[in-house]
């Protein structure tokens, strides 16, 4: 799907198999140090949150876009991302607050 563009795979994990976070953290840290991205943009889940935290620690700009599936409340990772991300977006206008912005959703307004 990405054609000739470079990409990196990472192990998926969740709170149910959190031990996978540790090898993933080393790989993510290595990739960030090697590639030196200007920004990290993620739509969420635990691996995205981990990447965002490591990126912020290494001085990378960070953006979190909470899942469109979370209509009534921010996702658990989204709530944590508010502490770490430079910018946090929701795809539902009712979920905004002083740290969470709404700029539209994937379906359009």
Which keywords apply here?
4 strands; alpha/beta; 109 residues; 3 helices
What are the SSEs and their pairings?
Blueprint: H1 21-35, E1 39-42, H2 45-57, E2 61-65, H3 76-84, E3 87-90, E4 100-102
Helix pairs in contact: 1-2, 2-3
What is the share of helical residues?
25-40%
Q: How does the overall form come out from the CA principal axes? A: globular
Structural class: alpha/beta
Q: What is the count of DSSP helices, taking H or I runs of 4+ residues?
A: 3
Q: What is the number of strand segments?
A: 4
Unreliable residue stretches: none
What's the alpha carbon Rg, rounded to whole Å? Answer: 14 Å
Order of helices and strands: HEHEHEE
Strand adjacency order, main sheet: 1-2-3-4
Tell me the span between the first and last alpha carbons: 27 Å
| Biggest sheet features | 4 strands, parallel
Mean pLDDT over the residues:
91
Provide the β-strand percentage band: 5-15%
């Amino acid at each position: 799907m990405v054609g000739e563009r470079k990409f990196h795979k990472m192990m998926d994990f969740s709170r149910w198999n959190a031990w996978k976070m540790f090898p993933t953290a080393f790989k993510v840290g290595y990739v960030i140090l090697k590639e030196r991205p200007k920004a990290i943009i993620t739509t969420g889940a635990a691996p995205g949150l981990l990447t965002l935290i490591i990126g912020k620690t290494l001085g990378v700009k960070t953006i979190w876009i909470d899942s469109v599936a979370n209509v009534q409340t921010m996702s658990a990772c989204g709530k944590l991302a508010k502490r770490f991300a430079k910018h946090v977006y929701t795809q539902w206008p009712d979920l905004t607050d002083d740290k969470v912005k709404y700029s539209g959703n994937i379906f359009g307004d």
